[in-house]
Structures are given as structure tokens and as C-alpha cells.
From TrEMBL:
Superkingdom of the source species: Bacteria
Top-level enzyme category: hydrolase
Domain Response regulatory, first and last residues per copy: 3-120
Known function: Involved in chemotaxis. Part of a chemotaxis signal transduction system that modulates chemotaxis in response to various stimuli. Catalyzes the demethylation of specific methylglutamate residues introduced into the chemoreceptors (methyl-accepting chemotaxis proteins or MCP) by CheR. Also mediates the irreversible deamidation of specific glutamine residues to glutamic acid.
Family of this protein: Belongs to the CheB family.
PTM entry text: Phosphorylated by CheA. Phosphorylation of the N-terminal regulatory domain activates the methylesterase activity.
Entry-linked InterPro entries: CheB-like, CheB_C, CheY-like_superfamily, Sig_transdc_resp-reg_Me-estase, Sig_transdc_resp-reg_receiver
Protein name: Protein-glutamate methylesterase/protein-glutamine glutaminase
CDD domains: CheB_Rec, REC_CheB-like
PANTHER family named in the record: PROTEIN-GLUTAMATE METHYLESTERASE/PROTEIN-GLUTAMINE GLUTAMINASE (PTHR42872), PROTEIN-GLUTAMATE METHYLESTERASE_PROTEIN-GLUTAMINE GLUTAMINASE (PTHR42872:SF6)
Comment on protein domains: Contains a C-terminal catalytic domain, and an N-terminal region which modulates catalytic activity.
Catalysed conversion reaction: L-glutaminyl-[protein] + H2O = L-glutamyl-[protein] + NH4(+); [protein]-L-glutamate 5-O-methyl ester + H2O = L-glutamyl-[protein] + methanol + H(+)
Origin species: Sphingomonas morindae
Key words of the record: Chemotaxis, Cytoplasm, Hydrolase, Phosphoprotein
């Protein structure tokens, strides 16, 4: 049984979230809290498996409370957020701090019970499998330590990530120089939050970080984030490369899919390309990374010790797709080195 604590200042939302999760045979809502002070005591006493956390609360806000949870009692947290610009930006910050995932509040509270489709319960089940670690401040500022050996020989970097990926991307891309190779990223996340994640990364990384657009030429010093749930991000062109956004069914259970990105790189940009598969649940990206390796690309996966969830990297490593299995602080320098030993 997965034991959940619901934290939200709205009595209506607490009731709706509790009712929604209470329909699941394997999930139990063990308590609800209206603010951080109540939640802090309940976490201490009840020791929940997963916490759902509203960002906008009276007193201590959700972000400040999340930082305390991650520092003092690491627990899988799902952010429950509205879709205003301020809320999505705060959610991106929460994912960077260490929240496992995010759940978009419906525009009208009554939609929650009829339109959810099991999304919140699915996020809770995934969160319950996450192995939480204490915060490691030394991982936050690594840019000055990166040696971009041979980085101008790297033509393209393709990155896939899922659970825990925003935190990992903040570390990896924060170590990229301003003139990094064109870099494309598929991060599994509700598409409503993709723009906020790109804005957040852009604030903290030397390269320009933006959402990918159709037929956008890929330029050095730029990182392109897959924009949402309805389209796959791919690479097209062999000489001058550009981004392609393709409307298609989910692949490996996801849209956008890491496999779709990696397979397009293997087909169109193998020479001088690097594939990186970061923390995440499931196996999306493993088959695509194997195709990249067979096409002559350099392939890297995050190791178990530094992964929030060692699912996607494990799947790739077990099928022989990874040339390098590295801790998160070492991935940027290896990716920028490309084929240089």
C-alpha cells in the first residue's frame, strides 16, 4: 500500500485529491494538511511514502517547504500546480530542487474527478519507487571544472531524461560552455510545464536554452527542449541540421519519446554525435541509444549511484547501448569530449 499525504491550502482541492486517490486499491491517503506547519508535523509522525504539495500556501510557501523536506527528510514529492505563468515557473524550480514530478490542477475543480484518467495515481505509483537521496550542494556549480576537450569536434548532443531529470539537466547543462554543440533534450514532463523548464534552465546555463520549433536550424551555443505532449522531437538534415516536430502516436509509452530523438540522430547525424541518457523510469531511449552506438556515436548513461531512478539508464546499459556509465558530475565533460579519449 502506498501511503500519501496531501498538502493543499484549499479544502476543496484536498477533498478532491483525496477522493481521486482513494479510489485506488493500492493507494491510501493517510492525512491532509492545509499548510507547511501542519504538513511538517504529519510527515514526522506518519512518515508518508509520497507527498502531494501545493506551491501556493499561506505562511511558508511550497518551494521553501520543499527545500526543507529535501534537506531534512528526503521524501518523494509531487507538485500540484495551476497553469499560470507564475505557477509553472515555480513548478520548474521545484523540479530543479528535487520534486519527483508535477501534476497540473484542472482549470475547474470539478474536472478533476472526471478528466484525470488515472494520471495522478500513476504519478504517485512512480514516485513511490523513487530512491531519495540527501541534497548535494557541491553538484550545483560545476561549470568552472569542465574541460571541453575536443568539443568543436562534437556535432550534436542528444539527451533524454525522465524522473529526476530536471535536477540532472540543471547540473549537466550548467556545466556546458556558452559555445556548446547544438543540444536537443527530451524530458518527460507535462507539456504545460516545458516552457517554464526551458526558461529556468536558460537562467542558469551559459548556452541559450529554448523550446524547439519546427524546422529550426540547430546552432552552436543553443539547447533545444522538446515542447510538449503532442509532438516528437527529431533531427532532420545531414549537412545543415534542423529540428523536426512530428505528430505521431506515443513511442515506448511516451510523446515526446527519447527513442524517437535518438533514432533520428542515428539516421541523420551519426558522425560526431553524442547520446546521453539520464535518470528516469522505464526504458524509453534504450533502443535509440543502441542505434546511436551502432551508428558510431558516443553514448553515455548516468550511473545508478547518482540517478533518482535507475530505469532508463539501466535498460540501456543492459542491452549494450552505453559506451560510458558515469556519475552525473562527470557526464558534461565526457559529452563535450566526444570521441577524444
Amino acid at each position: 500500500m502506498i501511503r500519501v499525504l496531501v498538502v493543499d491550502d484549499s479544502p476543496t482541492m484536498r477533498a478532491l485529491l483525496s477522493s481521486l486517490l482513494g479510489q485506488e486499491a493500492d493507494i491510501e491517503v493517510i492525512g491532509t494538511a492545509a499548510n507547511a506547519e501542519e504538513a511538517r508535523g504529519m510527515i514526522r509522525v506518519l512518515d508518508p511514502d509520497v507527498v502531494t504539495l501545493d506551491i501556493e500556501m499561506p505562511g511558508m510557501n511550497g518551494l521553501d517547504f520543499l527545500e526543507k523536506i529535501m534537506r531534512l527528510r528526503p521524501t518523494p514529492v509531487i507538485i500540484v500546480s495551476g497553469l499560470t505563468r507564475a505557477n509553472t515557473d515555480a513548478t520548474a524550480r521545484a523540479l530543479e530542487i528535487g520534486a519527483v514530478d508535477c501534476y497540473a490542477k484542472p482549470q475547474r475543480a470539478g474536472q478533476l474527478l472526471t478528466d484525470d484518467g488515472g494520471r495522478l495515481a500513476g504519478l504517485v505509483r512512480q514516485a513511490a519507487q523513487v530512491r531519495m537521496r540527501g541534497r548535494e550542494p557541491s553538484r550545483q556549480m560545476l561549470g568552472s571544472t569542465v574541460r571541453a576537450i575536443g568539443s568543436h569536434d562534437v556535432r550534436l548532443v542528444a539527451v533524454g531524461a525522465s524522473t529526476g531529470g530536471v535536477e540532472a539537466l540543471t547540473t549537466m547543462l550548467g556545466a556546458f560552455p556558452a559555445d556548446c554543440p547544438p543540444t536537443l533534450v527530451v524530458q518527460h514532463v507535462n507539456g504545460a510545464f516545458a516552457g517554464a523548464i526551458a526558461r529556468r534552465l536558460d537562467q542558469h546555463c551559459a548556452p541559450t536554452v529554448r523550446l524547439a520549433e519546427p524546422d529550426l536550424p540547430l546552432r552552436r551555443g543553443h539547447v533545444y527542449i522538446a515542447p510538449g505532449n503532442e509532438r516528437h522531437l527529431q533531427v532532420q538534415g545531414i549537412g545543415t541540421m534542423s529540428a523536426k516536430l512530428r505528430v505521431a502516436d506515443p513511442v515506448s509509452g511516451h510523446r515526446p519519446s527519447v527513442d524517437m530523438l535518438f533514432l533520428s540522430v542515428a539516421q541523420n547525424a551519426a558522425a560526431g554525435a553524442v547520446g546521453v541518457l539520464l535518470t528516469g523510469m522505464g526504458s524509453d531511449g534504450a533502443a535509440g541509444l543502441l542505434a546511436m552506438r551502432r551508428a558510431g556515436c558516443v553514448t553515455i548513461v548516468q550511473d545508478e549511484a547518482t540517478s533518482t531512478v535507475y530505469g532508463m539508464p539501466r535498460a540501456a546499459a543492459e542491452m549494450g547501448a552505453a559506451q560510458f556509465v558515469l556519475g552525473l558530475p562527470d557526464i558534461a565533460s565526457r559529452a563535450l569530449a566526444g570521441g577524444v579519449a
